[in-house]
Design goal:
Elements lengths: L1 H23 L5 H50 L10
Helix pairs in contact: 1-2
């Protein structure tokens, strides 16, 4: 996912450079400019999607770690100490 983010980031930068050169130069190729602008929008959307995806994966991993740690805490809290003891009511 990180490699994909890097690739999309490079596309974004390339589109920005292309737009800058098309708007500042003598060449006014409107079709090429429109394509570069669309590439820029697409890459920005992909970057946001990937950021959200990375955040979700991190949160899921953190939650799984917390669940594992909570499971370890409850199993070591007293279950082993009370083995063989019976509670009478």
């Amino acid at each position: 996912m990180v490699r994909t983010m890097s690739d999309v980031w490079q596309v974004k930068q390339g589109a920005e450079n292309m737009i800058q050169s098309l708007t500042s130069g003598h060449s006014r190729d409107k079709k090429l400019l429109a394509e570069a602008q669309q590439m820029l929008l697409d890459s920005k959307a992909k970057i946001e999607f990937l950021k959200l995806r990375i955040l979700k994966v991190k949160q899921t991993r953190q939650h799984q770690l917390q669940l594992r740690q909570a499971g370890e805490d409850t199993s070591s809290n007293g279950d082993s100490q009370n083995k063989g003891q019976y509670w009478l009511s």
